[in-house]
Amino acid sequence: MNIFKEKKDAPIYATERYPPWLMKMIEPPAPYLDIEADMKFGRRVPTASEFWTIIKNTRRANNQDKNKTINEDTVYESDDNEGEDMSMGKGGDKDDADVDSEVTVKVE
User: Fold this and answer.
1) How many domains is the chain built from?
2) By CB atoms within 10 Å of each CB, which of 15, 26, 101, 108 scores lowest?
3) Looking at the domain assignment, is residue 18 inside a domain?
4) Average pLDDT over residues 84-101
């Protein structure tokens, strides 16, 4: 692959001529669920980047589950309450007396 017009192409050598750490860089990363399973059974210790990938994906999954639960459990008594600020004092008036009476939560 030549990126310069005036210069000659860079030589490409056999894989054995390159250092092992360079070959590891082009390997695709392991799926984070496999890494988690390996950690659980003591088969491997994750690298720092693998560890942070696990943390990031775990946080994302937890947030998605929490948002799904919050959105599914909120039931409005009537359609006129749809879209109303239900923050219960977070940034709004703390004197919203009717907020508690308008929202019911499904308990299963």
Assistant:
1) 1
2) 108
3) no
4) 53
Selection from 76, 74, 78, 98 nearest residue 88 by Cα: 98
3-state DSSP of the chain? CCCCCCCCCCCCCCHHHCCHHHHHHCCCCCCHHHHHHHHHCCCCCCCHHHHHHHHHHHHHHHHHHHHHHHHHHEEECCHHHCCCCCCCCCCCCCCCCCHHHHEEECCC
The pTM of this model reads: 0.40
Residue 9 lies in a domain: no
Q: Is residue 87 part of a domain?
A: no
- Give the pairing type, strands 103-105 and 74-76: antiparallel
Tell me the torsion sign for CA atoms 95, 97, 98, 100: positive
Q: What is the domain range of residue 43?
A: 31-77+101-108
Residue 27 phi, psi dihedral angles, 5° rounding: -75, 140
Look at residue 17 and tell me if it is in a domain: no
- pLDDT computed for residue 69 by the predictor: 75
How large is the C-alpha radius of gyration of the chain?
27
